[in-house]
Amino acid sequence: MKCISHLSAWGLACLLAASPSAHARDLGEGAVNNSGSKALQNINNQYAIWSGIGRLAHRSGASCTAALLDTRNRQGKAVGPAYLITAGHCVVFAYGTARTDEPIEANITFNYFHDTPTHHITYPVRIARWTSMVGTDLAILEVGTSLATLIKKGINPLNLASHQSFEAHNVLNLGAPAGYLEKGVRLSACSEETAGTFIDHPGVFSQAMKNLCDLRGGSSGSPMLDRQTNEITGIVSKVAARLKKEASPDCTTAACQAATFNYSYPANFLHQCFIAGVFDVNAPDCSLKPVNLTVTQPWDIKPYVHTQKNTAGQITLPTWNFRFSLDDPFYRYKAVRNARDCQTRRNYSDAIHSEDAYINNEIGPQPGTHALCIIGAASQEQPLTQSSLKNAFTHAVYLTSAELMPSISPDYRVTWELLHAEFIHNFFYSVPADGQHCGDIDDPRYKPVPESITFAEEQLPVMLCSYVRNRSGQPSSIRTDLIGQP
């Protein structure tokens, strides 16, 4: 076998076959983790192994990244259609929904390197064979041509990793983000590891991996690749909401850091859904199924809830107050502290009629994350299966204490006595005490509190509206105090 000098897919195979030490080859070419991304120049075909990573463009003008999957059979022959893997929200942004054979109007551009625009090859996407935002954020798309045709055109597919490691490991991201003058595939290096259970709304990332690669809009759907094997370890679902340099020094908890991380989902379980080069959701070991759960009032979903004190000074717990509808005539549910436990059989309720579905159990009393798991059922007798557990709908909230006590001195100087040291950021506004109600935390009148505030007598009486945030960014409830009221 004659090996070529540049690192094409064939060249990589030569390297791996030539020497055991080749397994340690760094495909990132020494790129430092968390450094800036770089646009790849493929004029000499040196990055041909990533020619199958391209720009997924919708008819609407929106774009993501997608990667061509290697679905050749055990004999190494490409006998089926060409399939792409991307993020589910790049197809249908519908929280609680998993669909099969979903129409899509989009195309994929391969060989998407900025320095060789004449080599770009674009094909229409035929259909989304499966797309999900239930417990994951993944989609499998079928291209309107065969895998064999693409390989003959020099488009190299990628393999899914055979297993998923939740320990920290080095990876590369190859994506086609927008916002750069050099429009094409960019490489970024970082380490990825499990995100534990972290809440993102309107979804819950119970199986997500997190990383600090240099990603931007348009990176959704891009593959995270093992730096040595070039296998897909995950697909990017969420790009960091803020630049990493904006993170506060006291932002140490997972919930607070959520906005500074990117998140991806492992996809190795999809191996079982490809039979002889064809994607089949009905394959014996394929755990995919359609799910269609609709939140009745999605605008009321909040990522945080609070304990309260009643008139007798007793602590009262919030409730889920969760209304929904689903296609199945019955459902089972349970509440857990870790959203991953939605995939275990223990403690699910008996089957309940889904007409006017409403869950209003108390949340708590322990502070922190609480998750609600919901699984549809065709009958009251239908047992929980591995497939239904893996497709459980999850909704989660963060429970905080409502204790916030401003201290008012005789000269109307106000300071806040925090009964929980985790609350460190104060916000307030004041208005004349004329019977108004305090606004929610989104009210633009709330401003950060200095060390204290003092009201002059001529300003009184006033209504003081205030709340605090903990180190994770979760707010307390709104407190109302009348100052100087006769």
Could you characterize what this model shows?
With 486 residues, the protein is mainly β. Helix content is 5%, strand content 37%. The protein contains four helices and 35 strands. The protein has a six-stranded antiparallel barrel. Strands 2-3-4-8-7-6 form a six-stranded antiparallel beta barrel. A five-stranded mixed beta sheet has the order 20-28-27-24-25, with no helix packed on it. Strand 21 and strand 22 form a beta hairpin. The longest helix has 10 residues. It is globular, with a radius of gyration of 26 Å. The relative contact order is 0.11.
Q: Tell me what portion of residues adopts beta-strand conformation.
A: 35-45%
Annotation field: number of helices: 4
Radius of gyration: 26 Å
* Overall morphology: globular
Helix content: under 10%
User: Mean pLDDT, as a whole number?
Assistant: 85
How far apart are the termini?
94 Å
Largest sheet: 6 strands, antiparallel, barrel
Q: Got a strand count? A: 35
Strand order of the largest sheet: 9-10-13-16-15-14
Runs in which pLDDT lies below 50 for 5 or more consecutive residues are 1-22
Q: Tell me the structural class.
A: mainly beta
Keywords:
single chain, 486 residues, mainly beta, six-stranded antiparallel beta barrel, 4 helices, 35 strands, globular, disordered N terminus
Report a brief summary of the structure.
With 486 residues, the chain is mainly beta. The chain is 5% helix and 37% strand.
List the helices and strands and how they pair.
Layout (H helix, E strand, L loop, with lengths): L8 H10 L19 E2 L13 E6 L4 E6 L12 E6 L10 E6 L3 E5 L10 E12 L5 E9 H6 L16 E7 L10 E9 L3 E2 L4 E2 L3 E3 L11 E4 L5 E7 L15 H4 L4 E4 L8 E2 L2 E2 L11 E5 L8 E3 L1 E2 L5 E2 L5 E5 L3 E7 L15 E2 L3 E3 L8 E10 L8 H5 L2 E8 L4 E4 L4 E5 L5 E10 L14 E2 L4 E2 L7 E9 L8 E5 L3
Parallel strand pairs: 20-28
Antiparallel strand pairs: 1-10, 2-3, 2-6, 3-4, 4-8, 5-7, 5-19, 6-7, 7-8, 9-10, 9-14, 10-13, 11-12, 13-16, 14-15, 15-16, 17-18, 19-23, 21-22, 23-26, 24-25, 24-27, 27-28, 29-30, 30-33, 31-32, 31-34, 34-35
